[in-house]
Write a structure and sequence with these properties.
Strand order of the largest sheet: 1-2-3-5-4
Number of domains: 4
Number of strands: 12
Helix content: 55-70%
Largest sheet: 5 strands, antiparallel
Amino acid sequence: MGASGTTTQSDRSSHDEGGGRLAKLDPRALRHADIRIFSSASDAPNARRPTDVILLIVAVVGVVTLSLFAPGPTAIDKTVSDLLTELPGLIGWFWNICYDLMIAWAIVLLVFALIARGRKRLFFTELITAGLTLGLALLAGRVAGTDWSTSLKSLSASDAPPVYLAVRLAVATAVVVMASPYMSRPLRFIGRWIVTFGALAGIALGVTLPIGMVAGLLIGLGSAAIMHLILGSPAGRLTLDQVATALEDLGVEATDLRHAQLEPSGVALVVATSPAGTTLLAKVYGRDAWDGQFLASIWSSLWTRGERPTLGFGRLRQVEHEAFVTLMAERAGIPVLPVVAAGMATARDALLVSEVTGRSLDSVDPTAVDDELLRNIWRAITPLHDLGIAHGQLDGERIVVRPDGGPAVGDFGGARVAAPDGAMMADLAQVLVTTALVVGPDRAIAAAVDVIGNNAFSEILPFLQPAVLDRDIRRAIRDVEWDLDALMDRSTEITGAEAPELEQIRRVTGKSIAIVALIALLTYGLISTLADVGLETLWDELKSANLAWMLTALILAPISQIPQAFSTLGASLRDMLFVPVLMLQYAIQFIQLAVPSSAARVALEVRFFQRNGIETGGALSIGLIDSLSGFVIQILLILIITLSGLASLDLSTSSSSSSDSSSSSGPSLLLLAVALIFLGAIIALAIPRYRARIKEAIPRYRAAIRSQMAEGAKALQVLHSPSKVAMLFLGNLIAQLMLAMILGICLRAFGQSTSFAGLVLVNTMVSLFAGFMPVPGGMGVSEAALTAGLVALGIPNTVAMSTAIAYRLVTFYLPPLWGSLATRWLKQHQYL
């Protein structure tokens, strides 16, 4: 389907029949060779990218965390170092070459920038980056206890003794990463492999330990990210001459090439003219496009609806996918922009060339858009969905009005084959909003009802939510006099359909915060009394905590919600963006403390999923499936650890406090936990208002469960998807392990430690245990159970209770601070 882009042998060389002399090299062969050193022209515009923010955050968090264990050696350092030194066949000369090659490659990149025309700015930026990295590396080493001179000497050293941190690796990494967006793809890969083997060589030669190697990599990544954020970096977009060469490789004749104004991330759009006078649109997936790289692609897909990561979906496959879907739609009689050519050019740039016949809908004069055109747009989408294809981005740019007045659909790059019903309904919602933006709500609604009918139109209404629409449509809505709520109201007025009712969210009040504070005060007073730990003793123990370890636990606490967000994504059949789901996890941490009731959390989740076009029953099912998978993971962890003997809880022995020589046995702490359970139940049943609510809730929940059985059965279809199941269970598993790690870090803050399996067992049992308690957020119950569990692992009483309080502080009582910000963000972006 398109030429291969290879030139014939006769184009490249020929023989002189008279004397056997070599013929002159054809200039076209040099042009087709297109040997690139740099990814973009010297005057290409730079842009600051969010992915550099991610790299900088990861680098800072990583270096701070490693500094707690520096300078080593740790158990991991010894294991990795022994492994590398004992690898057969890799003798010293190999590692020496790899280690020296790092600096050599950094010098090569500097020379490229120095001798190339118009690259002096890149040269000085590389020098500044190297200097910045050297300073940060020396500072990090000094904080870890390595003096300045020793760290500086390690820049040229290539043998033992090991030094924290790997200064040479940091400088080389910084130069390579900083220059990567400017270099062609082959040179990027060369640099990455050189840095990788150089890092291993440093460990094998004894120059640094693995902990110092990782710290050096992070310092280099962070320094490069700082420079990218200050100065920006190019996107690797092809020049027009390179695009012309690629078009010639595919056998496409074109003139008057020019870049299009709007370009999606990772793709260059070039407009050209064919010999017949028609307009061509070339979508170019450049080999050196930095925006198409893995990390940038992942970031874009997490934030932007309609964009999907390109992991395992290379340039040529993206082109083939779009061409395939376009041809399928064209074969079914759907008006599309016909494909002229598709394939891979000689320089490994993938292109898809389409014939553009007409103007985009949002550029057409609204007075020229008649009702028949609106109806034809809806008629074009219906057979597309009959094929099981969801377009994904049916906005005013993708819907084209042809010269004959008929519509056409273009840009199937984000289309999905065998798409779920929700994706198709999102398509229809986008078409409704897009046409309403052009001709107004009344005409857009009337055209839709004329084609698909009232019943089908009513199914679109739950999808009239900002979260379902892409970024361009949401921005366009801000410039018109109506909003989605007004469009929803007008739709119900015209069709007589019932608008989907959104779940009401309880507001945070001063009274609710006061109740939480009172409950916390009473439970901690009760715990300290029953555990025979005085408040003064407890306060002294808390003051003695290592702040560095506590800071590490506090940094890891919000990160532990990331796998939980993936679990929620796995529980939903509907595709949702990751970042809003992550914000939902933080908002839940806020609402479950500020408004201590499970109903508030359920309302928050249901409202969020409704804003993503999911019915109430489906929204409740998502939460149920997510919770059920977490419950299964917890049971499995407990069974695996206890049956394998990795850890056990000794509830019959005593443990003495390290600070006041008082003792308290495990059974008394268990008694404490049981007492708190009964206390919570008595409070819930003794207060008439709460007792009445429980009586009213039982039949209501019973009726709701019956009415949502069908929706729940549909939601269970996620178990048919291996990827969804993996996200569901792995997300919950990693979340449980991360929380156990945070518990262990809190324990280390008080000078104690125990096995990781024991921490997993205690934390999992407490999470499972507290989840059944009728106490808001498990306040008091969780702290008591954690204290009992840690004591059963041999931790002194005072330390165990201090650890429990510190752990709950960083995982439950402080997260509402950023949870409130997440809630505000969700409201601002209309996810709540």
